[in-house]
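Recall that a protein's primary structure is simply its ordered list of amino acids. Everything else, from secondary elements to tertiary packing, is in principle encoded there. The following example makes that idea concrete.
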Amino acid sequence: MSPRPTDRREHDGPDIVCRDLVRIFRTRDVEVQALQGLDLVVERGDITALVGASGSGKSTLLTILSGLDEPSAGSAVVAGVDLSGLSARDRALFHRHRVGFVWQQTSRNLLPFLTAAQNVAAVLAVAGLRGGRARRRRVDEVLGLLDVADLGDRLPRELSGGQQQRVALAVAVAGDPAVLLADEPTGALDDETSAEVLEAMRLLNERSGVTTLIVTHDASVAEHVRRTVQIRDGRTSTEVLRRRRGEPVAGGAGSTAATGDVDTGMGTGTARRTLADADQGDVVAEEFSVIDRVGRLQLPEAFQQQLGLRDRVRLSLEPDHVAVRPGHDPAPAPAPAPAAAPAPAPAPAPAPAPATAADDEEPRP
């Protein structure tokens, strides 16, 4: 599909689909495989966190999804646009109309010599929104959406870190993109401000319906999203789905049904009750391991460490589950020493022969 500025929802299916994604970086002497057959599906209107340690491949994935790099193999489709082999013109249209970005560094989000409102207006001008009145209306709308409408006349240096990121979110969604990509949006903020920005992203997703993917190393982001995907060694390894107690989980982890059919109210713009409205005691978090197309799965590292799982595991098929147990054999117990054979009883002494009459006679001369 061409990334032209038509209806952002004209495509069918999920907003992010990665299949067997591979990215290899080569130098003269070194080859590094940053992504190793990664699969990922993010449903339309969902808000998902992609969590991983440094070197796990999460930043490489975001660079590909943003259209700034291409995979070595596999496919990536974002907002209905296949990112393989885009021309320079189509790539520019994709950036303008299909996807919005929020980066960790403020200098990549906001122009320092423009006010907050002017930063938003600049994006609208590039996107082709004509008419000063319509542009001002859209600026007021998106700033109000992020609760920073009263900061429109301030320069970035006059804003706090959290305010800067809120304005950056307004800039990212000003052109009404289908997908919002955020790279470590709270990496430079303190814990309290981070929680406020993440909550602002959740509310933005709920109010506007923009599909949101947050890439971070901070596991606490899981409290603000419904779905958390763990990436390890260049592949998605586990998922955590958060839902209200009593809600069914449709489909399996990683399937489109698992992320699209649970009625959380997120990403719909409707008045349905969201996870944030529920008491924390009513929220259930379930962890799933992702099975790839060839049947491989990765167990959570915490499980492996707690049970001492290494090298291999024992599997047994039970009536309703598969049991996984440590596969290393315990050290064999020393064999008991053989019992000593009992000593044989001593033979009884022979009885003396009975005396006879001949024995009593004197020998004859």
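Residues 250-274 have pLDDT under 50 and may be disordered. The first helix runs from residue 58 to 65.
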